[in-house]
Design a protein that fits this description.
With 340 residues, the chain is mainly β. The chain is built from three helices and 16 strands. The strands form two sheets. A 14-stranded antiparallel barrel has the order 1-2-3-4-5-8-9-10-11-12-13-14-15-16. Strand 6 (148-149) and strand 7 (152-153) form a beta hairpin. The longest helix has 17 residues, at 2-18. The chain is globular, with a radius of gyration of 22 Å. It starts with a helix and ends in a 24-residue tail after the last strand.
């Protein structure tokens, strides 16, 4: 028990020192526009809305909770054969540990997509997002050495810590690129990169000139048809910020026993977690569940428990060809595939 208390205290102290805890999800692919603003509108359907919730470290101390709600849509005027626009909104909230160190991040997102080669076999996308962020902390829930009198703790004693604010606000800006390649009619490759915190906004509870470091994210994915009823979707995600790195790789498979698919997958967060995934779709709703099995050196406190995630996404206007291309049918009379 004492080890858990000490580790929880170290986690809180580390968060205060870093001043820039970044919320994250194992199912990063379930919120595409939140991952990369260039992915806003990249969908076979015209519009999607969804949410994702993560609960982490419940077995160690006060849990870390992260949640996101999002919506994005594609705008493709009738005369646009090779161009389209994307718009979106994204909210991410986060509460961490005993001090309830939290963030509320609201973003507006815009993207532009340009098709190349015959039938848009290559698509280059650019996106940006502007965020308004609120960071909070409840320092009254923390314990400091100056508040101990021998073996007795007195919360009324001063902490001697230089807290000046318990709530701060700032604007944030992010930009991303995406390349989508239709290798065949049944295999699609995507390669993306994102720069987060481009303006390095200032953020400190102590009134110091601390700026958030720029974060670089790289991601890649492949959607491939294995059989008429089976798809495989391997992906890789790499995030780098001021010496910290997070690497996630793995795959999901989709099997169609009927008109709606069921999903199974397995993912690996490098040196930290193994994450199985299950899910299903029904009437356009996509429900996914995952659980991180912690395998890091933290296991003596976590007991192999990590984070639970659940996401729900709904797609709309999936059968309206007007937004996909100017012509409803190709020259051979077959229905055209979506541009995105």
């Amino acid at each position: 028990m004492m080890k858990k208390v000490i580790l929880s205290a170290l986690c809180i102290t580390g968060s205060l020192l870093l001043q820039a805890q970044e919320p994250h999800f194992s199912m990063f692919y379930q919120n595409p526009a939140g991952l990369n603003p260039a992915l806003a509108g990249v969908n076979e359907c015209i519009m999607r809305i969804g949410g994702i919730y993560r609960d982490q470290w419940r077995t160690v101390g006060k849990p870390y909770s992260t949640y996101s709600f999002f919506a994005d849509a594609r705008l493709q005027p009738y005369d646009f054969k090779t161009d389209a626009f994307g718009v979106g909104l994204n909210f991410v909230g986060d509460k961490a540990g005993t001090a309830k160190m939290g963030s509320n991040d609201f973003k507006i997102i815009s993207s532009y997509h340009k098709g190349f080669i015959k039938d848009n076999r290559l698509i280059i996308s650019f996106g940006w997002s502007l965020g308004f962020v609120n960071r909070t902390i409840d320092e009254t829930q923390l314990y400091f050495g100056s508040q101990w009198m021998g073996d007795q703790f007195n919360s009324t004693l001063p902490s001697n810590e230089p807290f000046q604010k318990s709530s701060v606000y700032y604007f944030d800006m992010n930009a991303g690129l995406l390349t989508t390649i239709y290798i065949t009619d049944y295999t699609v490759l995507s390669l993306g990169g994102v720069l987060n915190h481009i303006t390095r906004p200032q953020f400190s509870f102590f009134g110091t000139d601390h700026r958030i470091g720029m974060e670089t994210t790289l991601h890649a994915g492949l959607n491939a048809v294995l059989t008429p009823r089976t798809f495989i979707m391997p992906k890789v995600y790499l995030s780098m910020q001021e010496g910290s790195k997070e690497l996630i790789l793995g795959f999901n498979t989709a099997y169609y026993p009927g008109l709606e698919p069921i999903y199974m997958g397995l993912w690996y967060r490098w040196a930290r977690d193994i994450t199985p995934v299950v899910g299903f779709s029904i009437r356009g709703f996509n429900l996914m569940l995952s659980y991180d099995v912690n395998i890091s050196r933290f296991t003596y406190a976590s007991q192999y428990h990590g984070g639970f995630e659940i996401s729900l996404v709904k797609n709309f206007l999936c059968a309206d060809p007007f937004f996909f291309s100017k012509d409803k049918y190709s020259k051979d009379g077959k229905k055209r595939c979506p541009v995105f």
